[in-house]
Each structure stands twice: as structure tokens, then as C-alpha cells.
Amino acid sequence: MSQPTPLSPPPKPEDGRQPAEIHAALLDPDEAPRASESRRMQLWMHRISVFLFVLISAVAGVLLIILPWTSEWTDNTLLLSYPGLRVVISSGFFRGVCSGLGLLDIWIGFWEALHYHERE
Q1: How many other CB atoms are found less than 10 A from the CB of residue 80?
Q2: pLDDT tens, position by position, for the chain (120 residues)?
Q3: Which of 39, 68, 86, 112 is geometrically suited to a Cys-Cys bond with 79, CB 3.0 to 4.6 A?
Q4: What per-residue confidence (pLDDT) applies to 58?
């Protein structure tokens, strides 16, 4: 086999490992399992973060759809001292905007779940 020149690409590994794994294994034999375990941990952290994002989006969306149409939306202690704000918040337009944001939030969460892919 000929010697690689400085401008030629490195040879492809025959055992299917990534070049970073081979480099780590050459430097320290115990480094390759740690690199693989680190990648596995990052994959699970990514899965958990996507799951939490979808869960929070769905819960917030459902709350934004339902809550504006309940009595707790306008009859709370925060709005008793601001009657002008209470009129605005209790209007049908504002309630509809909040419900629309809830639908959008649910759609974004499920879109993220459907388009989830794992990086190699």
C-alpha cells in the first residue's frame, strides 16, 4: 500500500468504526468505549428533551384552548383590581386569540414529534 500524501483523504476504516473512535482507541484503549457511551448518553438526552418539548407544548396548548372559556379566566384576584384589563381579557376576540395560540402550540409540538429523527 502506498503512503498517503498530505492532501489525500485518510483511508476508510474497514471495521465500520468512525475515525474519531479509531483515533481515540489508538491514543487510549479505554477511550473508545467512553466515546460510544457518551454518544449513547447524548442520544438519550436528545430523546428526553424532544419528549419533554412535545409534552409541555401539548399541555400548554390544551390549557390555552380550554382556560379562556372558563370562569377562572375572568374571575380571579389578579383582575379584580384592574377592571379595564378585565374587560379586554374577557372579550371574545382575546379569548379566541388565546385558543388559536393553543392550537398552534399543539400543532408545533406534534410536528416536532412526527419529524423527529436521530442523528448518526
Answers
A1: 10
A2: 556 555 655 565 565 555 555 555 555 556 666 777 888 888 889 899 999 999 999 999 999 999 999 999 888 888 888 889 999 999 999 999 999 999 999 999 999 988 887 765
A3: 86
A4: 96
Contact between 52 and 100 (Cβ < 8 Å): no
Radius of gyration of the chain (CA): 27
**Among 120, 76, 77, 69, which Cα is nearest to 94's?**
69
The three three-digit cell numbers of residue 95, written as one number? 379569548
Q: Can you read off the three cell numbers belonging to residue 100? A: 388559536
Tally the C-alpha atoms within 13 A of residue 55's C-alpha that lie toward its C-beta. 6
Dihedral angle over CA of 18, 22, 23, 25, nearest 10: 130
Q: What angle do CA 82, 88, 92 make, to 5 degrees?
A: 145
- Nearest to 43, CA basis, from 54, 53, 35: 35
Q: Which residues contact 57 (CB under 8 A, 6 or more apart)?
A: 105, 106, 108, 109, 110, 112
